[in-house]
Give the backbone structure.
Amino acid sequence: NDGDTNFVEKVQFHLQLRDCKVIRLNVSKFLFPDLYPENEIHLSEKGIKFRVEDQFFQLDDIDVIWKRRFNGNFSQYIINKKDFIQDSPEIIKYLKREVKTIEDYILNFARDLNIKIINDYDERIVDKLYQMKMANHFQLNTPKFLVSNKVNAVQQFCSGTNTITKPISNYGYFFEKNRIFTTGTNTFRPEHLDDSTETIFPSFVQEQIISAGELKCLLVGDKIFASLQAPNEGLISSDIKRDYRKGAIHLSGYDIPDELKSKLLRLLKYYKLDVCTFDLIMTDKKEFRFIEINSDGIMLFYAQFIDGLDLVEEISNYIIEHKN
């Protein structure tokens, strides 16, 4: 999105002011040779060469790679290029595999050259259900959830509990002719199910937490920073995002307790993360529930509420520290 792009540009500019040469290579651009004819890439068994902004580079010229947002970049480029939506979804899937294979080859070659890759994380991070399992393994509390294809099991789980439903995998896009659909989180009640059938497609339901606040957290190296979104005084929120849009939420920096921070770091380092965002919910009893990790997330907006944090400088310093 624009805020995220603006943040990366700021980091790039900050590094350039410190005499670092920065190259931004988006392999999704190669889907559109008519729009980006100046971009070149050459892969072989002997090496990798590419041209960006009228300059040629060899892969072994690079000291540090910050890997991020393949899925987001691919989807955004497809959406912006409207005539792609007319194509068969199978063609789009095929193109995504092709572009991903190019990226994988570049990164595998970089590993062989011992180039530091920031966020060379475990690919299991994309499995949101597994995130919840591992959060429990590291003694973090999480909302209860169920995935089931049986109506009675879902109804039993939801009985007497406020629940939400969302995609099992992740939020995403659906393409149908000239229309784009996106998936998201919704409240869920047992009466939403059709009692005329016993079996449904495996569906995700999760306990809805009555929230005293939501922590938007950022990892940079071994440091964790947090910004608290909390309802205005005297209010309790069941939907922070909705209440934020209504102006009923205020934001401030927050110091996560050391014991909780230690558990979070063990989880994040299990996935080999260097820079990411993650969310926690603070209950009305001031307890914390882990929600999810966004391996490519940036919280530039929330960082402004954390006293003493210059996020651009913090990440720039981390990148420079890891130059070969």
The radius of gyration is 22 Å. The first strand starts at residue 40 and ends at 43.
